[in-house]
Amino acid sequence: MSAQGKVFIAYLGPAGTHSHVAAFRSFGEEALYISQATINDVFYSMEKSDMTYGIISFENSTFGSVVTILDCFISSKACQIQAKTYLKQIN
């Protein structure tokens, strides 16, 4: 990551959420993490090029696929899936 300069990561929700944990596991201490209030905010920050990457959850253990995210990918011209990670359910 150091060759790219500062890495900014948009993630859904406050610190400590599953998205934040997944982001930290993927990018470590060097990245700068910016919380976003909504799924649309994560996509919007990526489309404006304010963020290097965005972290979102495609599925969750309660409801399965998150339809809003699938809709955002269909309508977004700037966002693409780069990688995936799995988290065990936190109780």
Would you mind describing this structure in some detail?
The protein is an alpha/beta fold and 91 residues long. It has a single domain (2-75), classed as Periplasmic binding protein-like II (D-Maltodextrin-Binding Protein, domain 2), CATH 3.40.190.10. Helices cover 31% and strands 19% of the residues. The protein is built from 3 helices and 5 strands; from the N terminus they run E-H-E-H-E-E-E-H. It has helices spanning 18-27, 39-47, 67-75; strands at residues 8-12, 32-36, 53-55, 59-60, 64-65. It has a 3-stranded parallel sheet with strand order 2-1-3, with helices on both faces. Strand 1, helix 1 (18-27) and strand 2 (32-36) form a beta-alpha-beta unit. The longest helix is centred in the N-terminal third of the chain and has 10 residues, at 18-27.
List keywords for this structure.
91 residues, alpha/beta, D-Maltodextrin-Binding Protein, domain 2, three-stranded parallel sheet, two-stranded antiparallel sheet
